[in-house]
Specification:
Layout lengths: L1 E10 L5 H9 L5 E10 L6 H8 L2 H10 L4 E4 L2 H5 L5 H15 L5 E4 H11 L4 E6 L3 H13 L3 E7 L5 H4 L4 H9 L8 E5 L7 H11 L3 E3 H12 L18 H4 L2
Parallel strand pairs: 1-2, 1-3, 3-4, 5-6, 5-7, 7-8
Amino acid sequence: MSHHRVGLIVPSSNVTVETEIPALLARHRDATFSFHGSRMRMHTVSPEELAAMNDQRGRCVDELADAGVDALLYACLVAVMAQGPGEHRRVESEVAAQLHERSADADLVSSAGALVDALGALGARRIALVTPYVRPLAERVVAYLEAEELEVADWVALEVADNAEVGAIPGERVMDAARGLDLTGVDALVISACVQMPSLPLVERAEQELGLPVLSAATAGAFCLLRGLGLAPDLPDAGSLLRAGSTAALHR
């Protein structure tokens, strides 16, 4: 059984990434993982605080390079998407260059890029979203995904600006929001377009209730981390994206 070190770059107020990503990867049958974090200060999910947080990224990359991680997840989706279309490619390129300068051989994943890639792996073109963000930021996320040639058929913003409160949004509130979306002709539902809004108890449940593939920023991140490490993205009770034999398996 192989062992892998996973680096997590997270907002200082985020408590969900370090709960859900380890919980997901612990389900893998052929590997074990340790998790090593670095934090960027951010409390309120606003354009100003997100930009200031992004400026701290370089320090976090250096810290995790020192730890010799095998993979690194830059875990704040909206911090990247709020900067405009295609930003995840620029960020991933910059971080990869920084890792190379530090002689660190780590596979890099951003939450923003992971969601785009995971939707592609599912073959999803028409999607629906549940976001915790205030409406102007949610609109930026929608525009970002549409710039990736995805059709966002319906979406909802829960209008929670305090990032600590995002981590405590009840699952039933998220499920009710998902039930209120028009899912006609939708290929996949993103039940949490934020790594801080808890999703693990909801993904499989929502798939069964709503009858379509369901993923989240967390399951997308796990999918891309596993793929980057050369491991099968096959985890129980985590939705179609992480199920062997699913559409995603055919697109790997």
